[in-house]
Amino acid sequence: MSSVIVRIPTPLRSFAGGQSEITAEGADVGAVLGAIGADHPELLARIMKDDGQPREFVNIYLGSDNVRTLNGMDTPVSEGDVLSVLPAVAGGAA
Amino acid sequence: MPASRPGKEGVPPSTKAGRTGIFAGIGDTPLVELDFLEEIPDGVRLFAKLESTNPGGSIKDRPVARMLSAALRDGRLDGDRRLLDSSSGNAGIAYAMLGAALDIPVTLVVPGNASLERLQRIRAHGAELILTDPIEGYDHALRETQRLAAEKPERYWHCDQYSNEENWRAHYDGTGAELLAQVGEAAGSAPDAFVAGVGTGGTITGAGHRLREANPELHITCVIPDVFPGIEGLKPLGAPDDIVPAILHEELIDERIDVRMEQATAMCRRLSQAGLFVGPSSGAYVHAALQVAATGRYPIVATILSDGGERYASTGMWG
């Protein structure tokens, strides 16, 4: 289990208690996001589909790498890693 | 380049002989009828302007050309300062393209998650790019632009597409007037409903005013994207902290229809099977326009296909 920082995009912070970052533990990307979802289910619903995969047009970066180019949600994480949740396009959201 | 001609979006003073010809290619875009969509009831027709045929590949060429022409004509944009604005990409391409044509240095503040194709094209025209942290969203890029303009007025001229009145006027004189003429020729009367969204508010305000002048009963529908992941170039206008563009005349809007990115791109893929290769905002507009058409209350529905699908390939939307 590693402790990982997850950066929350502005439009989703209202579903994360206003936080811009959340620290969570897990062995891989899916487990970390699942741990966040336990406390913030509405946040998780906007990031992931029911099958545990990211929604279309939602990108999850481990550092500067899109996890889709790694091992997806099974990508292992290390202590102190930073995950960022981003829309695939630069929309007009706040 | 070919000789320029007076256009609806305006041609700037010819300070650089021969370099303003590209302005002549802006506007006068084709009108297409989406008669292959089976949800359209009998007695209803759906038309759309194909804006990807503009030289910069999107509807944004229109307001940018108009804003630059007016600024040059009035002496607000002189040779000593850089043109500055924020954009999620399409306006940025128009600024970069026309700035290169006019030999005006351009600085653009763009969220770092703007599509790769947009960033490459902006760089190809020689514009300076300032990428903002995408985690902070588009309004952060807008606020950063305002900060730069306020801190360095001697370096930047802020075009400010969100408050520049020439923005919506370009759509009043151009997009709206063309829709009236082309739909009138094709269907014999003005549109009964108009469907668009709000990026800067220029299209829905300018074309909306023009179409409603011709038909006071015109029904105007505004497409509202979901807040996340959003739809490129469209503002949800829902949260208290959202920046509402100054040029948006919200009183024009009769109805708002929510569209999710998945619905928008599903429509894009469907349109591509009929030969129309368009981006997500266009898919969102057509998705909403079909709902308006399905009511059967508006015999002629008009909307906009704002840009082409090529500049979204890197997002994975085409598989």
Architecture overview:
Chain A has helices at residues 29-39, 41-47; strands spanning 2-7, 21-26, 58-62, 65-66, 82-87. Chain A is 19% helix and 27% strand. In chain A, helix 1 packs across helix 2. The longest helix of chain A is centred in the middle third of the chain and has 11 residues, at 29-39. The radius of gyration of chain A is 12 Å and the shape is globular. In chain A, strand 3 (58-62) and strand 4 (65-66) form a beta hairpin. With 94 residues, chain A is an alpha+beta fold. Chain B is an alpha/beta fold. Chain B folds into 2 domains: 21-59 and 168-315, Rossmann fold (3-Layer(aba) Sandwich), CATH 3.40.50; 61-158, Rossmann fold (3-Layer(aba) Sandwich). In chain B, the strands form 2 sheets. Chain B has a 6-stranded mixed beta sheet, sandwiched between helices. In chain B, strands 5-4-3-6 form a 4-stranded parallel beta sheet, with helices on both faces. Chain B is globular, with a radius of gyration of 19 Å. The interface between A and B is medium-sized, with 25 and 40 residues.
Strand content of chain B: 15-25%
Task: Please tally the helical runs of chain B, counting DSSP H or I stretches of 4 or more residues.
Answer: 8
Overall residue-averaged pLDDT value of chain A: 91
CATH class of chain A: Alpha Beta
Strand order, largest beta sheet of chain A:
2-1-5-3-4
Poorly predicted regions of chain A are none
Assembly state: heterodimer
Summed up, the domain count of chain A is 1
Could you say what the CATH architecture of chain A is? Roll
Strand neighbour order, sheet with most strands of chain B = 1-2-10-7-8-9
* Cα distance spanning the termini of chain B: 37 Å
Q: Between the first and last Cα atoms of chain A, what is the distance in angstroms?
A: 34 Å
User: How many distinct folded domains of chain B?
Assistant: 2
- State the CATH class of the largest domain in chain B: Alpha Beta
CATH H-tier superfamily of chain A: Beta-grasp domain
CATH topology of chain A: Ubiquitin-like (UB roll)
CATH topology descriptor of the largest domain in chain B:
Rossmann fold
The total of beta strands of chain A comes to 5
